[in-house]
C-alpha cells in the first residue's frame, strides 16, 4: 500500500476548495490503483483539512498525478490552500471487531 496524507490549510474559500476536491475525488475514483480517499475537516480549527488517499502502489499514484486532468482539476487549489504533503507507507493498521462498530 502507498498512502498520501496531506495537511491542508485554507487561505481562500472552503466552499470552493471542497467543490474542487469533490471533482478531484471523482477523477481519482476512476483511476486504476486507488483503494480509497477521504477529506476530513478539523473540528478544533476549521481552516485545517486532512486528506488521505490509499493506493495499491506508488506507480498507480504517480500515473494519476501525472495526468493532465489531475493538474487541471487541482491546479486552482494553489489560490485556496497551502498543503503539507506526506508520502507514507503502512506501518500498522486495524479495524473494529465485527459487531462492535
UniProtKB/TrEMBL annotation:
Pfam families: ABM
Signal peptide bounds: none
Bilayer-crossing regions: none
InterPro entries assigned: ABM_dom, Dimeric_a/b-barrel
Domain ABM: 2-90
Superkingdom assignment: Bacteria
Gene3D superfamilies the UniProt entry points to: 3.30.70.100
PROSITE patterns: ABM (PS51725)
Protein name: ABM domain-containing protein
Lineage of the species this protein comes from: Bacteria, Bacillati, Actinomycetota, Actinomycetes, Kitasatosporales
Amino acid at each position: 500500500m502507498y498512502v498520501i496524507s496531506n495537511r491542508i490549510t485554507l487561505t481562500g474559500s472552503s466552499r470552493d476548495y471542497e467543490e474542487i476536491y469533490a471533482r478531484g475525488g471523482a477523477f481519482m475514483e476512476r483511476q486504476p490503483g486507488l483503494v480509497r480517499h477521504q477529506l476530513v475537516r478539523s473540528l478544533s480549527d476549521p481552516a485545517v483539512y486532512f486528506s488521505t488517499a490509499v493506493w495499491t502502489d506508488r506507480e498507480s499514484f504517480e500515473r494519476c498525478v501525472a495526468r493532465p486532468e489531475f493538474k487541471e482539476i487541482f491546479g486552482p487549489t494553489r489560490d485556496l490552500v497551502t498543503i503539507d504533503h506526506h508520502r507514507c507507507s503502512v506501518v500498522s493498521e486495524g479495524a473494529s471487531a465485527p459487531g462492535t462498530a
